[in-house]
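From the pipeline queue, job 12 of 40. The input is one protein chain; the requested action is below.

Action: predict structure.
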Amino acid sequence: MKKITFILLLLSISLNLGLIYKFFYEGEKVVLAKDGRSEIKMTEENREFVMTEMRGFLESVQKINEGIAKNDPEIITKVGQQSGTCKVDVVPQGLVRSLPYEFKQMGFQTHELFDAISKIAKKNYDRQQTQEKLNQLLNNCVACHKTYKISVEK
């Protein structure tokens, strides 16, 4: 009886690990695109959400850069908060499941960098440190766009 229980436990653990890998690490529909990037296929609604968010990131980067140029931490604080981790709560259902783990990591890190930029500007503004964080954020954007392509599943 103990042997059967042990075998069932191992099967259950294996199945759960496989499901966790499939839904949290691999992503649902990722294929190699012709240009060598990983192509993430998703619904039109989810693609629109991601594209809108990325355009928002770009607008935020421009405003943060403006804040640095004008030496105005209030602009940076406000914009950093708008693109920070608070945005994670408004993700459409099913989107996170469709994304590969590395894409999710970059996305969360990008939101966290916006938070860090906002915090620097609010607590102890330093132009150099803000510029360095902004550069890290832009490196994230470049890496993501070099690695991934998003298309609508047919």
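Job complete. The chain has a mean pLDDT of 87.
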